[in-house]
Amino acid sequence: MKTSHCSGDPEATKSTEQNILPKPDQNGPDSRVPVELGAEDPRRLSTPRKWVIVLISSLIAHVVTAGSSIYTLAYDQFNTEWGASRELATAGLSLYTLAMGLGPLLVAPLSEFYGRRPICLWSLILYLIWLIPCALARNIETELIGRFFSGAASSAFLSVAGGTVGDLFDHSQLQTPMLVYSITAFLGPDVGPIFGGFICQYTTWRWSFYALMIWIGVLMVLFYFFSPETYAPLLLRRKSERLRREQGLDVDKKLQPQGLGRTILISCTRPFKLLVLEYMLLSLCILTAFTLGIQYLLFGGFAYVFRTVYRFELSEIGLTFIGIGVGAFIGLAMDPLWRKYRDKQLKENSGNPEPEFRLPAVAFGALCLPVSLFFFGWTARPSVHWIVPIIGSGFFGVGGLLVYSGIWTFLVEAYPVYAASALGANAFTRLAAGAAFPLFGVQMYESLGVGWASSLLGFLALAAAPFPFLLMKYGKRIRGASKFAKA
Fold first, then answer.
1. Are 62 and 187 in contact (CB under 8 A)?
2. What is the 3-state secondary structure (H, E, C) of 119-187?
3. Is the N end or the C end of the chain the one with fewer CB atoms within 10 Å?
4. Same domain, 312 and 199
């Protein structure tokens, strides 16, 4: 029975639950005995146990993504304490996000050799360690260094956490757990300013990092005790080695991973090769890049708008991000509708699933993004109640969640052999935009004004919105001509 994995290891989707070991005293095709994971197969865990693992992984993803933005309302305090400019303080957000994008290219292949669990545990330990200089920094340089390396440490967990979710479920069951994982990761950056605003207003920015240390410490303990190894190829290798020792069977060399250096080289180069050669992948990466870039730009944009237009205090500015969060939960509640629509498409296609069946939700989400930005930009004015632009931001929450979760699932199904590389390409482009956009956000709002600055972002989102519609119509034809996608 085939097992597939959605991310976190190079081309893990080629692994199988059943592999063959040759008997030491025979030759030929009949000299092999089957080795199965059996009860050790992570997909045979009980449903409650699977969901415990999913929830722990999702909460950790939520914390480390919240860590990217939790200090974004402390920029003025950095200026007061260290004389750091807003641009230099914003670099802490950009460095953290950039490191999150670079880390998976180097770290994800390690799971092929060591499994997911050790990578996750060491990631959390290093993340906790690098939060210490962030909390105790006496100058902006130390703060920026701590931010970069804490972002890199968090990326190690994120690079394999999605794969952990994929390890536990068949494709037919994967949509809901991936949606749960997606919403927690998506909401993390928006929850960060909510907590950070209250912390910075009523204590000191340093407690933003102390809170993260406590939060991640508790979750690390839960992960240690309740989250086992789920990477099937490693579990199969271990079982094969055990059978070799106990029964004298020769281990099939196909079960052994490639050399570490070669694996890392492939992990670092193949995502960019796919970006150049696969226009289908590139178009979806552009859409997710614009989505995350705008989301991170709005950390500064919301602070500027609600401070200058509505005279909000720090804690009140943080609460304005609730609108995006509510929108994301509305997007989550729409899942049964998309599932029902997909079932209808399956029935019309004689029960044969196609990756494009995931795209209607993405297309709807892509339309919500420009609607949100135009709505927000032209209602944020003193004559309009502050709740109205926040309602407008809710459409961004709906759209962002549907875009992220739908595209991730589509890429896994469209590139089954190269899923890790496709997801790696998506992660890099998405997080590179998330690192770049905040650097010019406030300046853009100051120069263009709230309405036109938001409209410029809306036009960017609108330019990328047709991509899922085009792939719904031509995706199957494009896949048929691709050397990497499933025909």
1. yes
2. HHHHHHHHHHHHHHHHHHCCCHHHHHHHHHHHHHHHHHHHHHHHHHHHHHCCHHHCHHHHHHHHHHHHH
3. C
4. no
Are 428 and 269 within 8 A, CB to CB? no
Sign for the CA dihedral angle at 70, 76, 77, 81 comes to positive
Distance CA 437, CA 432 (A): 9
Instruction: Mark 264-301 as b/e (b = at least 16 C-beta within 10 Å).
Output: bebbbebbeebbeebebbbbbbbbbbbbbbbbbbbbbb
User: Residues 225-247: pLDDT tens digits?
Assistant: 999 998 888 888 887 777 777 76
- Looking at residue 109, its pLDDT comes to 74
Query: Where does a domain end: 235, 269, 303?
Result: 269
Residues 322 and 264 in one domain: no
Final residue in a domain of this structure, among 269, 295, 323: 269
Confidence of residue 20 (pLDDT cuts 50, 70, 90): very low
CA dihedral of 218, 220, 225, 228, whole degrees rounded to 10: 150
With respect to residue 332, please indicate whether it lies within any of the assigned structural domains: yes
What is the model's pLDDT at position 18?
Answer: 44
CA distances from 156 to 65, 124, 241, 352 (A): 12, 9, 27, 36
- List the CATH number of the domain containing 379: 1.20.1250.20
Domain range spanning residue 357? 278-479
pLDDT at res. 140:
96
Span 110-162, pLDDT tens digits: 777 888 899 999 999 999 999 999 999 999 999 999 999 999 999 888 878 87
438 confidence band (pLDDT: 50, 70, 90): very high
pLDDT in tens, 397-417: 999 999 998 998 899 889 887
> Domain count of the chain?
2
Contacts with 463 (C-beta within 8 Å, 6 or more apart), sequence order: none
Q: Are residues 206 and 292 in the same domain?
A: no
Instruction: Examine the domain organization and report whether 205 and 294 are in the same domain.
Output: no
Alpha carbon 465 to its chain centroid, in Å, reads 20
Considering the domain boundaries, does residue 393 fall inside one?
Answer: yes
Any idea what DSSP says for residue 422? H
Task: Clarify whether residues 316 and 423 are in a common domain.
Answer: yes
**168 and 285 part of one domain:** no
Tokens of residue 324, six digits: 């995006």
Q: Residue 349, Cβ neighbours under 10 Å: how many?
A: 11
pLDDT cut 70: percent of the chain above it: 89
Please compute, for residue 102, the number of CA atoms within 13 A of its CA located in the half-sphere on the CB side: 13
Q: What percent of the chain has pLDDT over 90?
A: 63
Is 369 part of any domain?
Answer: yes
In whole angstroms, give the CA distance from residue 226 to residue 304.
Answer: 43
Report the distance separating Cα 104 and Cα 260, nearest Å.
15
Does 265 lie in the same domain as 303? no
Q: What is the mean pLDDT of the chain?
A: 87
